């Protein structure tokens, strides 16, 4: 009988410690299990993309191998798409820097444009140039306008959200105005150079 009590007295502490140990490493265990499952998946590319998006970790996209049809052109569209998806989901343009681009793939500009539209962040458009920057700013402006209209259409609009959206719209308009002035100054400078050449 004494042996049974001794065994049972250890059962609860061992169970508690075991549970604590498992919970502490749960994230690593589930991520490892996901990686292993993706390795055996029929569609490992989409599995790895989803794993990267869920974790918000663009380094997981690095594990997406280059498909045979893209080896000759040196691009990896599934990997670049993964970086785009992580960046858009996190609303963080940092993952866009990892995109290699190339024939048949996505570009860093595509990624930045997507993040700017998703997050309504006009400052992300500032990382683009020329027509891509203008298009991005127009998209962000339209997105913010749609959000303002949707909020105003509610029976009880959230004033704090409306104030935030109005501020975003003002910031976007200021950036748009600065962009327009810079483009006009560049055009004037180019005209002056052309006239001096003639």
Short description:
The chain is mainly α. Helix content is 74%, strand content 0%.
Largest sheet: none
Number of domains: 2
Order of helices and strands: HHHHHHHHH
Low-confidence stretches: 10-29
Give the overall silhouette: flat
Secondary structure class reads: mainly alpha
The CA-CA distance between the termini, in Å, is 108 Å
Structure characterization notes:
- With 198 residues, this protein is an all-alpha fold.
- The protein folds into two domains: 18-119, no CATH class; 120-198.
- It is 74% helix and 0% strand.
- It has nine helices and no strands.
- The protein has helices spanning 2-24, 26-40, 44-55, 68-71, 77-90, 108-119, 122-125, 130-153, 159-197.
- It is flat, with a radius of gyration of 26 Å.
- The chain starts with a helix and ends with a helix.
Attribute tags:
198 residues, mainly alpha, 2 domains, 9 helices, flat
